[in-house]
Amino acid sequence: MKKSKNKNPKKELLVESLQLPKDVCMGALRVTLTGNSEAWIENYRGILEYTEQMILLQAKTCQVCFEGNRLSIDYYTNEDMKISGCIQCVKYL
């Protein structure tokens, strides 16, 4: 038997059936890109690694890695952050 990665499948089913936004109801990561120069990230848990070439973030259910050149975190709070620079790749791990 295959186990679901989601710890609460009933909650996910309810959210989907009511067509509610997952980022609000389930704490899902939300990434908004503006071209390849800016990224706004919401619902992240922490910064795991930070260099000019890579920024690795922990989310509730995954990690997200931004790769590029001259990357910087312009600001961050407990809920969101803004990354700027030349973003070449976004990976979900």
UniProtKB/TrEMBL annotation:
Any matching Pfam family: YabP
UniProt cross-references to InterPro entries, sorted A to Z: Spore_YabP/YqfC
Superkingdom, natural source: Bacteria
Name this polypeptide is given: YabP/YqfC family sporulation protein
Source organism of this protein record: Candidatus Acetatifactor stercoripullorum
